[in-house]
Amino acid sequence: MNIIITRPFIDSEDLMGKLFSLGHKIIHVPTLKISKAELDPIDPEKYNAFIFTSANAIRNLKLLKQDKNKLCFCVGAITEKIVRQQGYNNTISAGGTINALKNIIVSSGDLNKKKVLAYICGDNITSDLDLELQKEGFQIEKIINYTSEKIKELNTDTINLINDHPPDIIFVYSKRSAESFIELMKKYSFKGLMTDSKVMCISEKVLNVFKQTGWRRLEIFEAGEELTKLKK
């Protein structure tokens, strides 16, 4: 199959390698440029736990000093893997959704509502997790440590690959990425090539972005399920 992956290369290298080894044609179409935000280093002693909803949040984490025993709540297995690679050993992973992450934090026996949590995230998020947890009585500080900018141009090689190998499957990992991808496809008049493409969406919100613009073959998946979904 011809498969488009929209995540940055650093997040998709392993997946693309596995898909390629299975005989699939991989077209990498990154949709967002990630940049570190300019802010002062975070003092970990101010917080009882960190919350990460993306790998970019942990990659761009800047601390006054390290605290590898800090309790870290992670949205899913991929984010937890990156947190672990950074040396943190006290991690809890949700099932890949914000709602599951919220429920794990609310029911955690390691926290009480007097403790302060740092929600570390980007400038564009699909869910106000901090506000939801505040409603539950938690003290939350949202810290934006990276920004995302839509990519507006495709290089000639990518354009030729899409024209020569119209995708059977497209994996999209965020609402903002979905918006960027649709804008790129419209700019280069690619949508007509993708009438039979199935768009795999990381969440209902991503699916709705495509649905509202007329895309028909849509399905929700969880991060880490890509190979399983293809086998089905």
What would you say about this model in short?
The protein has helices at 9-21, 55-59, 77-85, 98-107, 129-135, 156-164, 175-187, 204-212, 226-231, and strands spanning 2-5, 25-28, 32-36, 49-52, 71-74, 91-93, 116-122, 139-150, 169-172, 198-201, 218-220. With 232 residues, it is an alpha/beta fold.
How would you describe what is shown here?
This protein is elongated. The chain is built from 9 helices and 11 strands. The two termini are 13 Å apart. It has 2 domains: 2-31 and 151-231, Rossmann fold, CATH 3.40.50.10090; 35-148, Rossmann fold, CATH 3.40.50. It is α/β, with parallel strands linked by helices and 232 residues long.
Distance between the termini: 13 Å
Query: What's the number of extended β-strand segments?
Result: 11
Q: Give the total of domains.
A: 2
CATH third-tier fold name of the largest domain:
Rossmann fold
H/E series: EHEEEHEHEHEHEHEHEHEH
The description of the largest β-sheet is: 6 strands, mixed
Give the uncertain stretches in residue-range form.
none
Strand content: 15-25%
Tally of separate helices = 9
Radius of gyration: 19 Å
Keywords:
9 helices, six-stranded mixed beta sheet, Rossmann fold, single chain, 2 domains, five-stranded parallel beta sheet
Blueprint (SSEs and pairs):
Blueprint (H helix, E strand, L loop, with lengths): L1 E4 L3 H13 L3 E4 L3 E5 L12 E4 L2 H5 L11 E4 L2 H9 L5 E3 L4 H10 L8 E7 L6 H7 L3 E12 L5 H9 L4 E4 L2 H13 L10 E4 L2 H9 L5 E3 L5 H6 L1
Parallel strand pairs: 1-2, 1-9, 4-5, 4-7, 5-6, 7-8, 9-10, 10-11
Antiparallel strand pairs: 3-8
